[in-house]
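task queued by scheduler; priority normal; single chain, no ligands, no partner chains; default sampling; output format set to structure tokens
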Amino acid sequence: MTRNWVNPMIYTLIALAIFYVGVQLFTNTSSFLSSIVMMIGIAVLIYGAIYFFFIRQRIGSGGNSNEMKKYKQAVKQSKQKYKAPKPVKSTKTNTSTTKSTSLQKKKAKRKQPSHLRVIEGNKNNKKDRASF
């Protein structure tokens, strides 16, 4: 039952507010516009202060910024590693340039993958299994 009288009261308040804004706009335009600009400015300042002191700290906390830096560094390294080689533009086809490019290709093929490495150990000291 209490909702029956609340809805018309809210609509009445909204209608009166719109009527007041219209009256202020036509009777005292300069002060109305200056007050609107001040309200917008104050709202921006309040939002900026709330964002600066509360929201920004929540976003940066928890190690997220450190993890993001590491992620960006890993992406950068991955792009450098897997980027496609640029085609060589040559107007002259000399035998010396073709030999040098073939040598470069051979060197590139011989290069070991970066994720594999040789582990040094005692390979010459083989145990005699018969002595056990």
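post-processing summary
- The CA atoms of residues 48 and 54 lie 10 Å apart.
- The mean pLDDT is 76.
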